[in-house]
Amino acid sequence: MDMLQIGIVIVVLLLLVKPVGSYIYHVFSNEPNRTDRIFGPVEKLFYAIIGLRNRSGMSWKTYALSMIATNIVLVAVSYAVLRLMGGLPVNPNGTGNMDASLSFNTVISFMTNTNLQHYSGESGMSYLGQMIVITMMMFTSAASGLAVAIAFIRGITRREGGLGNFFEDFIKAHVRVFLPLALIVTLVLVGLKVPQTLDPTVTVHTLSGAVQHIAMGPVASLESIKHLGTNGGGFFGANSSHPFENPSPLTNVIEILSMWTISAALPYTFGRFANNRKQGWIIFSAMMVLFLAFLSLTYVSEKSGNPLINQLGIDASQGSMEGKEVRFGVAQSALFTAVTTAATTGSVNNMHDTLTPLGGLAPLAEMMLNVVFGGKGVGLVNMLMYAILGVFICGLMVGRTPEFLGKKIESREMKLIAVAILAHPLIILAPTAVSFMTHLGTDALSNPLYHGLSQSLYEYTSSAANNGSGFEGLGDNTVFWNVSTGLVMLLGRYVSIIALLAVAGSLSGKKLVPESIGTFRTDTKLFAGILVGTVLLIGALTFLPVLVLGPIAEFLTM
Fold first, then answer.
1. How far is CA 467 from CA 80, 88, 138, in A?
2. Rounded CA gap, 45 and 48, in Å?
3. Residue 124 and residue 86 in contact, taking contact as beta carbons nearer than 8 Å
4. Which UniProt keywords apply (predicted)?
């Protein structure tokens, strides 16, 4: 039964990849298509409002600066709203202003598409904050990420035309992708009993005579873009394990597909841009192989139960149900865990801190690799980075100048890719080490042993991968954790974006090299194997030592 549940979701995803990937291609190919009649007038209105008359292609520097400048403006507005929230309207519960360090962490978190929450949504945020700051930034951060992914694809596949225009891509991502899909998913969730209201917290009297306060609000609209935009920040502190956010197995499947489909469809979009659909399927296959491996590790570990509890003779037929909702069970909890960390969403329908050691290692590893589907284009762009690296290594082995999609890979591209590859582990491992050198870091740990290392490591890995989930045994709402994770989120988002846009800009200006008998083809099963091997080799060399000290050591001592 468990395998059937997981299998059905994966089959539905496979059926959605081609149509969704084709749709995204038509949206951003800038070629006339049938959707122009529906969305064209709306886009023209936005172009007129922002004064965008010239929509010609940008250089990689202009594209990156345009994205960063737009994000800075949104961060400034959002920070002001959070700091003044207590005196602003649409605050029926009287929520006060958010303090400075938490406001800094929150705006950085949501603008970088991380959505790491060091506050509890129902008590720490007003309705205005939930809508104007949280929901708005869920749209804009996702649109920014998708625009960058499309620009990168254009750079490595086009013969001419540059990377495109950021503002045009940004508006198209909103008007043609996220807004219509979010509207549909919102209506479906409302129909499945997810609340959508501006009424204040409801006070009820229980049968025993006690008073209970039930928080509600505009939940469905936040849930839709939370998953479609691979954001992950919950309306409630319990996130998607809360029955108002995710009331049934059906809503659970809808939320899984919402956060997975666009990311999974982007390799097919890449294949359309490259005029080689097989190339897109090879990238997708490499991602799916890695995903299934990590999903299997999580499921088997959780289904086997906790060894220490099993030794007591307690019935473990249901598996390790600690931290999981009975309405989901191990299968849907494991699938949600694997998808939310693969797609760098960060929403949770079970508490990751209570996963078995190897069950917790799988989501950690997915975020460390950061190529298993990824968020809005993150996984695809990073996997293409490894594809270029794999081609380079193979070229060195046979003594031939490496080529990818008919363009020579030279020292400039490899230096930029090295920056992106090395920056990710650096901003994870260095802060983790620092957190154990000061009581400001160790005081927040609820477990001083191997699991305590995993808690700190998970927090920084989640921040660097712009995921946002956490081992919530960590007391993270302190100035130290708010500022340090805020800085890691910034670096994790923008260092790789700038480096990889520079790679795309460099490749976009190169002439195509005619294919010959010595050309190494990158649309074969052999290359898929090389790609998976390259990802695992670099990941193991970088992160295996710290994983041995954390979850692996914890497993071996149980």
1. 24, 30, 13
2. 5
3. no
4. Cell membrane, Ion transport, Membrane, Potassium, Potassium transport, Transmembrane, Transmembrane helix, Transport
CA distance 323 to 440: 27
- Kindly report, residue by residue over 340-350, the tens digit of the pLDDT: 999 999 999 99
H-helix or E-strand spanning residue 122: helix 121-124
* CA–CA separation, 185 and 163 (whole Å): 31
- Note the pLDDT of residue 204: 87
pTM equals 0.94
Which tokens in the block code for residue 159? Answer: 């013969």
Residues 394, 239: Cα–Cα separation, whole Å: 44
| Residue 409, amino acid | I
- Counting Cβ atoms within 10 Å, is residue 309 exposed (0-12), middle (13-18) or buried (19+)? middle
pLDDT, averaged across the chain = 92
Q: What is the pLDDT of residues 63-84, one digit of tens each?
A: 999 999 999 999 999 999 999 9
CA distance 437 to 448: 13
Query: Could you give the CA distance from residue 39 to residue 50 in angstroms, rounded to a whole number?
Result: 17
Evaluate whether 477 touches 444 at the Cβ level (below 8 Å): no
Residues 6+ apart with CB under 8 A from 187: none
Banded pLDDT at 32 (limits 50, 70, 90): confident
pLDDT band at 317 (very low <50, low <70, confident <90, very high): confident
Q: How far apart are the first and last CA of the chain?
A: 29
Assigned token pair, 391: 């081609």
Q: CA 417, CA 70: separation in Å to the nearest integer?
A: 25
> Of all residues in the chain, what percent are helix, strand and coil, respectively (each to 5)?
65, 5, 30
Structure tokens at 184: 């549909």
Q: Which two tokens stand for residue 47?
A: 């172009």
C-alpha count within 13 angstroms, C-beta hemisphere, residue 383: 39
SS3 of 146-207: the string is HHHHHHHHHHHHCCCCCCCCHHHHHHHHHHHHHHHHHHHHHHHHHHCCCCECCCCCEEEECC
Inform me whether the pLDDT recorded for 375 exceeds 90. no
